[in-house]
Structures
1.
Amino acid sequence: MLELVRVNHMDSCYIRPIVIRGYGEMGVNPLKNPIDVYIACWSWGKYLGEEALAEGVDVCVSSWTRIAPNTLPALAKAGANYMNSQLIRMEAHANGYAEGIALDEAGYVSEGSGENLFVVRDGKILTPPLGASVLPGITRDTVLQLAESLGIPAAEAIIPREMLYIADEVFFSGTAAEITPIRSVDRIVVGKGARGPITERLQKAFFEIVNGHLPDRFGWLTPVAKNVPVAV
Ligand SMILES: Cc1ncc(COP(=O)(O)O)c(C=O)c1O
């Protein structure tokens, strides 16, 4: 991945490794087929729109339920799971929203089609636990670590749908979405309908490290310029 970014002279890009079972026997048991790996990188702009990071986005609760436990492994970033994500995202778009939030099989808040979700209420940050059919996103983890270092209480918690409507702040996290404020859910305004103060603090702390303006005290960054051996 480092080599790919380096040879393409990317200042900023998204990296997408794709690992598949390749050419071989037909059938649904993949174990005899070779593992093929492709890695792509490209410059991806702002995932939820140019204004999203500062202004926030308008989202809906999806009519599609997130993949249920013991059907597909939600913890894995597996291609098959993304049929569910596509349905959530397409429905949201068709209805004029930037993104959809899926509930889990029990009806509790799960995540966006391609982002983890956080709510802020009374100064405390909550995010659905891993058992709520969420992807254990690296940005989710980043937010939890940043919150701790900033002294903002944060916890994993089961989140009922109505919490989205009475929260002070709601935001998404993700490699593509970074930290994106949500200004309305189902046309119900969240907080003051703009990026909230805790979201802004977290965003600032996130970008300071990601853009290299402050030292990376967490060990998150990998220098691309450094020549590291690449397996052939
Ligand atoms: C379904 C889903 N949830 C959450 C995330 C956020 O994960 P990460 O922070 O690792 O990018 C993604 C990212 O693609 C995703 O597809």
2.
Amino acid sequence: MNGAEALMSVAKKAGIEICFANPGTTEMPMVMAMDSAPGIRPVLALHENVCSAAADAYGRLAGKPAMTITHLGPGFANSCANQHNARRAFAPIFNVIGQHSTWHYDADAPLAMDILGLAQTVSHWVRETKSPESVAQDIVDGITHALGQRGRIACLSFPHDHQMAEVEAEPVLGKPEPLEATDGKLVDQAAAMLKNGKKTAILLGGTALKETGLMLAAKLKAAHGCDLVIEGSFSLMECGAGLPDHIRMPYPPEPAQALMDSYEQVIVIGTKLPVSFFGWPGAPSQYLRDRDGVVHVAGQVGDSVTALDALVQGTGAAAATPSVTRLEVPGMPSGMLTPDSLCQTFTALQPENAVIVPTAVTTGRLYGPMSTKLPRHTQISLCGGAIGEGPGLALGAALACPDRPVLNLQADGSGAYLPQAFWSQAREGANVTTVICSNQRYAILQGEMTRAGLNQPGPNSMALTQLDNPPLDWVAIAKGFGVPGEVATTCEELADGMKRSIATPGPYLVEARI
Ligand SMILES: Cc1ncc(C[n+]2csc(CCOP(=O)(O)OP(=O)(O)O)c2C)c(N)n1
Ligand SMILES: [Mg+2]
């Protein structure tokens, strides 16, 4: 067995089933090993940022890492924006980066660059195989690390000569690092707060947003009348009828600060203390800083479910009937599409058990609050603020959950970062409905200009934020990558397009013009 075959066989034994790849010459042994040591599904992506986006969603939904294979430093560099998003989402990913043969390092060949230095900026674990003897252990160490806590980014730089060398492959998978244990004193403090009658919010994030955590929180809400606030960007949230109603942490700093200030007490579980997305002049940076009545029971890698359970037991809420929402599907609006009616149409048609990728920036802001009473579904949001991940997330979601419909509510400007994902969606038969919210501009940035006090933007500012000259033809873009689609300008047309898409297997795109 050579090193590349060892990679495939060890990774398969460790539970890895899929590899998002964009290979080159230095990865040829790994490409060939996908046949000589088969068992891992190869998925070609036409840009490395598709690999990382798809691996991000796959990791969040499957709960185990996908592998990626990218070409030297430049190939991996192309994947970095979505590696960053994946790191913020605590997605497990095992990245294998092809490296030159060790005897070729001195030559300083054109594609050579500092792979480890680069990978370190987006990863928790970085290593280069040192010798053929270490290869098998390096592989399991990387996978073990990726599986640690909620999930992490692990990067293995794999020199070409080590891929081809004969290697021994009987390494043992280590024990992944567990979630951080809960501090009983903090639980006691929070329990006392829940019972003291003051106005209280529980700010929830991370693993607390899965069903078990949410249902425990629903008991606390029922027993103590507290509000549940959800972190602004979340890795994975179960949502819809039968789960507790909640308030989303607003994106702009003023309403976010006002929301936090409206509570005498805030208990934080499964996320960090909330911060503002940007440092806007005069606006707050950290919403819960320097105030009383805050207890941080569990952080982003804390064991939030155990913490919530301890709170339920410790406050006598175990017998409470959980406070949950009832199914309420909005009526179908009609007429020309507006951001509001677009989101209403989308929610009216959202099928049960769907995975939703809500990456529609300005238009999609209305979606979150509309979604809590819809049929049960899962939402995965953009966690690192690096826009343009949506189409790749949708690909990874569809491959992790082949039996579930995947819907990507996607803004146009950000969608244009990653249309290559459509090709992989088509090739893999991914069951994705993409609704492009086509406002033909970077609306959020135009809003930023207004916030900055610019009432009449000049032609150059507009040139940097308008997308209408020439307009993006999304149906043609999708068609070019093998995905059928149509344009909708009214709610009725959007509804028709969505129904067509949901009824037909494979990807489909509706360009919803606002
Ligand atoms: C990788 C990256 N590049 C640039 C930005 C800055 N940025 C934030 S929002 C945005 C435009 C979003 O426009 P669009 O996706 O059309 O959303 P809209 O506000 O129009 O709904 C840009 C360029 C970013 N956040 N991430
Ligand atoms: Mg836009």
